[in-house]
Amino acid sequence: MMSRIRNLSTDSIPALAGIVGPLILVTGDIAATLAIADYRMVRNTISSLALTHLGWLQTLGFLVMGLLVQVFVAGLYLSIRRARGFRIGIGLLLCLGFGLLMIGAFRMDPPGAPPTTEGTIHTITAFSLSLVFPAALLALSPSLRSDPDWRATSVYTLIAAVLALGLTAGLALLPARIAWFGLYQRIIVGNVIIWVEVMAIHLLRLSLRRKPIPRDTATV
Known about the structure:
220 residues, mainly alpha, 68% helix
């Protein structure tokens, strides 16, 4: 265990960012939910937490995750062998991180209130990310499949992309004011979070496998 900790290096930072970011978002969501008496995770959306007195927890969670996802994607860029569509996939993942920042910075409009610029930006960004995520995974898939270090994650990545597309398409079929929309939205977000966690853990394992350069042989 101690030897693995000693092997942590700057190569491990993007992986740790990918692991910590989603955990912060989930922790803030759960903490705020438990503290608000009339809030229900099954019924209410994640974004509606920003309208409560503990909304700063939700806002902070999206902002931190957005920043850490950018760092994590930089690690993927440096670690995966490039094939067709690689740059597009990485670019779309960077857009995902930026979109999370936008969602945190711009709150949704309260239900029934007149639309505002802030709320419109929030809504458009949230819907765009539901398409950006599966597109990024599909573009990145050939690179994962062709890289021996990442081939084990390629099938799961395709499954996550198809699931994301199916869940997004399902939004159009849901009736208005459905009682469990909050749960449905959390399944969509959970698919993203789990993929980031799985890939970040895999990236961390790869970074721990790399042997550090001995000090007496390092070039200056």
